[in-house]
Every structure is written in C-alpha cells, then in structure tokens.
Amino acid sequence: MAPGQAPAARVAADFVESRLALAGLTVLALVLLGALLAHLIAPQNPYDLAQLDVLDARLAPGAQSSDGRMRYWLGTDDQGRDVLSGILYGLRTSLGVGVSSTLAAAAIGVALGLISGYRRGRIDALVMRLVDIQLSFPAILIALVLLAALGQGIGKTIAALIAVQWAYYARTARAAALVESVKEYIEAARGLALPAWRIALAHLLPNCLPPVIVIATVQIAAAIALEATLSYLGVGVPVTEPSLGLLIKSGFDYMLAGDYWISVFPGVALVITIVSINLVGDRLRDVMNPQLRR
Amino acid sequence: MLLFVLRRLLQSIVVLLAVSGLVFAGVYAIGNPVDILISPQADQAEIARTVAALKLDRPLWEQYLAFLQHAATGDLGRSFVFDAPAIGLILERLPATLELAASATLIAVGLGIPLGLWAGIRSGSLAGKAILAGSILGFSLPTFWAGLMLILVFSVELGWLPAGGRGPTQSLFGVPVSFLSWDGLAHLVLPALNLALFKLALVIRLTRAGAREALTQDYVKFARAKGLSEARVIGVHVLKNILIPVVTVVGLEFGSLVAFAVVTETIFAWPGTGKLLIDSIGVLDRPVIVAYLLVAVTLFILINLLVDVLYSILDPRVRMAQAGG
Amino acid sequence: MAAPVLSIENLRTRFFTKRGVVRAVDGVSFAVTRGQVLGIVGESGSGKSTVGFSIMGLIDPPGRIVGGAIRLDGRDLRQLTPAEWRRVRGRRIAMIFQDPMMTLNPVLRIDTQMIEAITAHERVPRATARDRAREALGRVGIGAPDERLAAYPHELSGGMRQRVAIAIALLHRPEVIIADEPTTALDVTLQGQILAEMQTLARDSGAALVWITHDLSVVAVLANDVCVMYAGKVVEQGTVDNVLDRPLHPYTRGLIASVPSRHPPGRPLPQIPGMMPSLMQLPLGCAFRDRCTRASDTCRSDPPLYSLDERRVRCFHPHVEEDEAASASERAEEAP
User: pTM, whole model, 2 decimals?
Assistant: First the structure.
C-alpha cells in the first residue's frame, strides 16, 4: 500500500478485490434503482385501485391479464395486484424506513456519544448506563413494546427503529472520542478555547466515522429485517403503504393453500436486499479495519 | 465466589428497578393509566375502585410505590380479554416458550459446534466454505421469512411435519412438555429449527473463529508434540478453549431467543408467551403487555446473572481473578 | 564414534504463501549422537525453529517438507505414515517450546496435560500415570508436586511452567530432545538454572539434545557441536571449539563480536549492519552479501558448503590466514 494514498481510494481499491462484495454491491445498486424508479418501471401502480382488476386475482406467475394488455411475471395477489409492481413499491417503503431510521439513529447516537466521550463526567455516566441497559434487551422486544404503545404508522415505525439503534452508535462514537480527546492536538484546541461543538465536529467526528459507517451498513440490513418482522406481526407500517414484510403477511394464508408466489417473491426480494447489504457491510468492515485482516 | 454472586445479584436488582421505573413511566406518565389499566367496558364504580386501589388519584411517587408493591406481590393487573390475572396468563404459557427456546438452543449448539469446528479446521475445503456461506445466509434470513419457508417446504409441499400448533403435552416434574411423544416432537421440530437458525449461524461463526485461532496457538502445537491423537487435540485442547466464549454467548442470547419466540410462535401458532403478547397487542390488552414486559425483563436479568456465574465456573482464569479481588 | 541417533540430510522445508514461496529451510544437514548437544544458532527468521518443527513433523499448512531425510536410528521419519510419526512424537523425540506462558493449555489442569502425554503412548492405569507425572515433576525440581498437579497453568510462574514442559518432554525418556529457545522468555537468573538442569537431565538420560537459540553464549557453555544458520541455510558448522574460537564465516564472526560478555566494557558494541533479507525475495548468490564487509563480485553466485579447517563453511572469503585464503577461495569455486 503506497503511503499517502487517500483513505477513501484505498478502501475502494481494497473493496473491489473481493468479487463477492462487488457482486453484492451490483445487486444492491439494482435494488436501489428499482426502488427509486418504481413509479417509472413498475407495470402498474399497485395502489391505484382503478388499475386493478378483480378478475385477475391470484393468477400464477407468467399469466396474461384478462384484458390482454400485460403479463403478470410474478403473478397477482388476492386483489388482482401485480406482485412485481407490489415488490418494487414495497422495496421503496422498506428501504426508505430502513435507511432513514438508520441515518437518524446514527446522527443521534454519534452526537450523544461524542458529547459523552468529550465531556465525560455525569452526562457520560448517564448516557452509558442507558446504553448498557438498552443493549441488554433484544431490539425486537423494545421495538414491539414501543409500537404497541404508539400504534401503527410509518413515522412511528421509524421512531421505534431509531430508538432500538441509537445505542450502538453512541457506544462506538464515545469510544473513538475517548481515544482521540486525550491526544495533544485536542488539548491544544481546548487551550485555544475553541467551542466544544467545533472541536467535536472538526476533530472527533472524522475519527469515529469509519467504525460508524461499518455499523451503519450492517444496521441498515438489520433495520430492514426488523421492520419487515414488525410489519409481518402487524405492528409496523400500515396497509396503505405496505413494505415487503406486509406483502409477505398478506400472502401467508394463500401460501398454505398452495399459491406460494404472493408471499415467496416479496420474501425473495427482501432476502436479496439484506444479503447484498450484508456482503457490502462485511467487506467494508474488513477493509476499514486493518487489525481484523487475516 | 459467594461475594461475586451477591454483587451481581445487587446489580441485577438495580437494573430491574430501573426498568420497572421505565415501564412505570411508559404506562403512567405518557399514557393515561386509567385507559391503559382499566378495561374500556368497565363501569364507573369499577373505575373508581381501581383508581383507589392503584392510588391513581395520589401523587406520582406514591403511584410508583403502589405499582412496585403490586408488582412485588405478583399483581400486574387483570386481562381485559380473559378477565384473569395477567401474570397468571403469562406464567401459564411460559413453559411452552421455554421449551421452544431450550430446544432451539440445543439445536444451535448441537449442530453449530460440530459444523463450526469442521469449517474452522478445514477452512479451505469445499464443505468448510459451504458451511461458512450457510452461516452468512443464516444471518441474513429474517426469522419470520425462514419460518414461512420451512412451512412451505416441509408442511405444504412435502407434508412431513405439521404447520403449526403444539402437540399433546405430558407432565414432567409438574411442567407440561411436548417432546415426550412423537406427535409432540413433530410439532416442535419446525418452530425450534426456525428459532434456532440465527443462533446456529452465530455458533458456527464463533466456533469457526475460535478453532482457527486456537489452531495457531502454541498449546495446540505442544499437544501435538506430545504425540496426542488428532481427535484428542481437537476434541479436548481446541474444543475446551472454544466452549467458553460459545457458552457465554449462547447463554446471553437465550434472552433474545425468548424475545424472538414472539415471531416464531406467531408463525407456527405456538401457544407461548410471545403469541399471547402479539394477540394482546392486537386487542390492546394492556395489562398483559405490561406483565409480559416485566416477566421478560426479570427473565433476562436472571439469565445474565446465571451466565456470569457459569462463565466463572468454566474459565479457571476468571475464577482466579475473582478469588483474588 | 557412535552412530548418530538423529541425522538430518539435505532437509528442505517451504511455506507456500499467497505472496510467494518461503524457503524457510534450504538444504540443512546435521547429525547428533546420544549424550551430545547440538546448538543451532541464528537470528529470528533464519529458519532455525522450522528445522525443529520439521523434525517433529509439525509443519502446518501452507508449509511442507519438500525434500531430504530425517533419520531416527537410521529410519527416515518422512517415510512413516502420519499415525506412525505421531507415535514417535513425545515418545522418541520430544520438544520444548520457547514461551512457557503459551505452551500449556490454559483451561486444562497440569495433571490432565501430563497424564494424557503418558497415555498417548502407553496403556497404563490413570493412577500409575499420575504417579509417574508426580515423579517427573520431582525430577525437574518442582516441590509439592501434588499441589502443582491439581493447578491450572496460570497459577504457576513462568519458570515453573517451563519446568512442567520439560517434565512432560522427559516422561518417555526420549532419544532426542529438541529445545526451541526454552530459556529466552525467562528471567536471567532462571535461565542459568534451567540450562544447567537440562544439561544434567539430558546427560543422565542419554538423550541427544538439539538446542535452538539465538544466543551464542548459551551454545558456548552447553553444546558440543554447532550449526550457524542464516536465511534458511547452514553457513558454518562444526565443533563448538573450532567454530567459536576460530570462526571462518563473516556472519559467525559478526555474531560472536556482538555478544556483550566477550566485549571490553565502555566501547560501542559492534553490530552486523543491515537486516536479514526476506526469505521470499532472497538475492541471487550469498544471502549475507549485502551485510558483508568481505563481499566481492564472486558472491553473486551461490557459495557451496565445503570442508575447511575441521568444519564446514559456506563462504567464498572465509576468515583464514591470508595465504590460506586464496587457496580456500579457489577450492570453493571448484566445488560443485
């Protein structure tokens, strides 16, 4: 490794050495594209009731629509909705909830962690006790209870996901801040009486970013999986904006009757999304953390 | 040792108090406790009676004390739906959940350690790589989705195993269990496997990493230099060193198994506490939710305590450190 | 002279890593007889430890012995099946490792680790094995052996642990003991003690001792013969008296000059300049040439190991009297 090479370039160069990770990244890009462009590429708008035809309900994959205008490549659900279109729109909800909750949790967690690590003392003790207690309970339980109290809804689901995730970032950012804040240049910055927020932003934040990015990547996958689980259990997103989890739930009864596609294809989309994010995340962790390399 | 257990016990009680405070805050401070704890169908007299009993007309700290007092005596309110004490409903279904979680642990450890050892020792072989790939997939499969696929394959398509419900139960030391009959076992297999999948992937990863690390250690080389058979080197020298972290993690993860049983029980209609929780959330049977939460929290704290003690028994170095300090 | 109990012939061990092939041991030959001590000297990375592990048959992948013979009482161990070689390990050839903190399994009691070493080779009742373990601890000077047997490794000091490892090595009265820097990790006062004890134990049991070290002063007091290794090859070998008193190879000379005790105090300690080259990218010719003051263009070709002045040396420009030097370098060039 040539010294002086920019870290981002080095990470990118190392990253592409793994074909598996590269494949994951490619698939992930396709998934993201599909979700973002759902309204352009989906054969129908699955939530425009005018476009649905009840006569087309529960058609097998590859069936022709009754008016002969389109083919349902992945079949239709009980309301005659094209499963492929449902998946593309569902991906949008799933990814939206997963990404936004992760970003918000990272922002909140990192801010609290930096304050803890920089200020120390009582704030630190309080925040870290909270982190310890929260991390000793499974995320799904906390999210379930929160949603049971708050009720269904996209915003509420995001809030619950933020609540279960922030602690990871707080702990990571604090550890990085603790290491960094005793270094001489921080002491010098303190000596100059620079405001704490400037020191935190300019000096501490960049140092805790690599581990935070790694955690965030893996956490997006975890958040998507958790959201799908909560929605499947009926406490997550509402039926008006179904995510993949809710699509799977809606097809469960028909699956037992043999119409597998209503549940299975959204599930496959979910698994592909999660696996590709995890592949990218695993590789990122390897290349950003040289100590872990073997 | 005794001192250590006592200290951990004290810590546990502090955590329990803190969590009970949070639950109390959730129930009392955020929502209106009258709405949460009293059935919507209750008449005025009933409401008045409950308000008096729970001291809802008193200052907040008195309410908290009353809440603690009730909780300590096992009174966590009555279920609106079943019209029975909430705590009783939970405890009644606890054995089913624990049986499921214990079976899942057994599967995760029983399959995970041999597979992980194989993947660690023969990490270059095809089987080793396949096991690793499988464990990565196991991490990525959401539990509920894996459960659905198990049902689709083994119940719907192949018709080998029942899709849901708990089979007949027998009493073992006064606890109803289902693994004593073939039918009960058949009902147990799929949900237990489903619940185990994630932990199985975890155990494989831990064991694999542990085996790879141990194999590079001098003590393994020295064991070989003594002329020990490969079986003894792997089965005793390597395994015993791996067991410590694996047992610790599996123990700590038992709590999360109980939590994830919520998902598995819902999919497989397994009559445990998790399904009760989801059903209760569906009909807003809040006393049951509160009761579940406190029972689960107590369970987690107990598990953490047990694991700490077990860990110190397993690892002679930790035992030493505690005797010294 | 008695037939050697262990003789190594042209041993070659390589590590096939992703970045290239490491020639850790490249054509090493030596022999030891019972009751004799052979010192193998070299700095870290010279391949001296790999020689020890090769003799034990304990080279882990990606390493492999690619050539040569390891003869124990005339029988080539490389021809044995893995199971047969296992029965030699610990019974006929034993090994003691460098770091006593790492060689005993931290989660197994001492008695477990000693008894298994006995029962791996002999069918004896546990109680008998335990008695023998207790005796063995006594032999290496460990008091209260019953207490020690029930202990875990972390409850013992470093010196005590190394004594346990020595006791384990001696359990089956092996014909050959390989000691890989067994005193390096210990306190100076302990080093001398262990050294003396090892010498006595080996002499009493009549075992041949192969002592691997970077420390020439240890070899001087302990060994009969010495092999000096550099970059996977033997550069000089012979009796300790010959090699240490009249070193021929510039590397051996450099090593001797940098031993502090042989040096007048107050003056800077001479050091061999430079570093040993990576075994993966060895230069053509003599591997020592870049650090050598006597190097010439001749050294760009591989120097052979040839006999000179009652020992073997691998150098075109050995430190001999000037008139001899010319003929020596002539002879070296003629050698195959």
Answer: 0.81
